[in-house]
Amino acid sequence: MKPVKVALTTLGCRMNQFETSAIEETFEKRGYQLTDFKDIADIYVVNTCTVTNDADRTSRKTLRQAKRRNPNAVVVATGCYAQVNPEEIAKMEEVDIVIGNSHKNAVYEIIENYLNEKNEDKIFIDNIFRENQFHTFQISTFYEGARPILKVQEGCNSFCSFCIIPFARGKVRSAKIGDITKQVEILTQQGFKEIVLTGTQLSQFGYDHKEGNLNELLKNLIKVPELYRIRLSSMGINEIDEELLELITSEEKIAPHFHLSMQSADDDVLRDMKRNYTVKEYMDVVKKILKRRPDTAIGTDIITGFPTETEQKFENSLNNIKDIPFAYIHVFTYSEREGTSAVKLGDTVHPSEKKRRTNILRKISEEKNVAFRKRYLDKNLEVLIIGEKEGKKIGLTGNYIHIKFDSDKDINSISNVRLTEVGQDREDNYGKEI
Known about the structure:
13 helices, pyruvate-formate lyase- activating enzyme, Rossmann fold, alpha/beta
């Protein structure tokens, strides 16, 4: 009898979350019953991540858990870890099929053929750099609160020395501006007010076609009349030209919240990371944004323990980070990724020292985030209601402050709230509707 229950889980980024949603949608349309990954299912699909060694370990652990849950189930590994290390995953006795990102748009068909004994292969993968088509573009069923996530770009052309992602995702492929605009129009007509645009490196949107870059895309989207707000995912400062900078700091529909990945605040380390900008150049962009739009939340990523990050360079980076008005920092501990050029440098920083540096930066991130939110205490803020928890509505400001408050308004409504309490946790804020 044909299996009817399928369970999927996602490790890693919004890109994976979006793609898992698309795979779920395909199974559901073909008559399968979706069930929670913790339940007994006939098919388990794990959308893996490989950004760090820990991500690899978590992916393997999750695959083993699925097989333990139902030894007779078909267990499928897809995603970035599957693309970069398919042979390693295929050796796991718990895994039945390995499907790389090169074949992610065919997950359903591959599983169907396996179930119908139409193929005996276990690994489905091609050279990701031969991929030149953008896949998985449709109405998203993945949401953060009430906010639809649209994947509009995939791949990265930067090849930073520490990063495995280009080898997992390939070079830049972008959706067509007209297709994206049409999807946004449909979503706003359904009542959604904020759309989150996501991609591997969003600021590289359009590098692969002649339709236009991110600036052109945004100019089209802000014309959608029902659209209240566009939120952008991670961008690189060396890909933000003056025209784009002017648009994102002057257009009210674009959320004043920009995640500008930095990775280090020491020039020597940035050079070794092949980041192609200096600390000063990064800070200059941040200063321009905040001068033109002072309420903007600037977030970033920092890696600790890169091979050439000596104690002195870490201290230099730390001092610079303290001077930059970040609203939050995502801190990652460096781990070697086979295939990247940084591997040739060796893993020179002791694990205990990496941990120490990571803890220092995470504490600074917490302090900066609390300080950022406290700037808005007793101020009246406009929020989009994105959810409800424990009887209180959850509102989100343009600059990414979550506020819990009492309200009779529905989700996807706009409300004005006075921020009355700021907690230690980023989402632990309370307000009063006015």
